[in-house]
Design goal:
Elements lengths: L2 H16 L1 E2 L12 H11 L1 E2 L1 H14 L3 E9 L10 H7 L5 E10 L2 E5 L35 E3 L2 H9 L6 H22 L25
Parallel strand pairs: 1-2
Antiparallel strand pairs: 3-4, 3-6, 4-5
Length: 215
């Protein structure tokens, strides 16, 4: 592998890691094709685990890397964070969710790449891997509850996830949860503090009624 291609790949990983994790930035369902989602995510530099990794996969595939899409089932309840009470109340009803990471093959070696969390969340204990001078495996951003489903391309992955989308009351709970999650994460970025204990009570102010107005 050329040093130039490797440098481009490392820069691609670093760039997407900087994108703000935002579950309301771009809806993965609906009429947006994966190409349109990728272009829009690049433009606004915000996204979910899905849209961020779609961008990264596209960049790495352009450089000639073999990329596979890994869908990990997980529960937000099992992540090691001390959520504010407002989120805890929603978590009791949150169903299993699906997380996207990438498996990248480089020189016959497979590497897990996960750049879900942006650097603004690092001080609160979220996993933000250090990206050095080579493309290296990273820790997974979630705690999976089973082995991943492997997809060879984004179309197959999108179809698989769409087949799992819930409807009815579950859909409403999921929407409320992600709105609350975004507000909480926004507060962490504005005033980075360790999550947990007495400090966590200060985050409750983010959930006052006016906190749900446009931010």
């Amino acid at each position: 592998m050329s040093i130039e291609r490797q440098n481009f790949a490392v820069n691609a990983v670093k760039a997407v890691q900087q994108y703000v994790y935002d579950t309301t930035a771009i809806k993965c369902r609906g009429n947006l094709s994966s190409r349109k989602r990728i272009n829009l995510t690049r433009f606004i530099k915000k996204g979910t685990c899905t849209t961020k990794h779609e961008v990264l996969a596209s960049n790495l595939e352009t450089l000639g890397y073999d990329v596979k899409y890994l869908t990990y089932p997980f529960y937000w309840q099992e992540l090691p964070y001390s959520y504010p009470q407002e989120i805890q109340d929603l978590l009791d009803k949150m169903p299993r969710q699906n997380h996207l990471a990438l498996m990248v093959r480089e020189d016959k070696e497979e590497k897990l790449i996960d750049v879900t969390w942006d650097p603004g969340l690092k001080n609160a204990g979220f996993i933000v891997p250090r990206v050095n001078s080579t493309v290296a495996s990273t820790p997974l951003a979630v705690v999976p509850c089973s082995n991943p489903v492997v997809h060879s391309n984004i179309v197959d992955r999108s179809r698989y996830v769409e087949s799992l989308w819930p409807t009815g009351p579950e859909h409403e709970i999921i929407g409320l949860f992600y709105i609350a999650l975004n507000i909480w994460l926004s507060g962490i970025r504005q005033a980075p503090i360790k999550v947990g204990g007495a400090e966590n009570r200060t985050l409750g102010m983010l959930f006052a009624p006016n906190a749900y107005q446009a931010r």
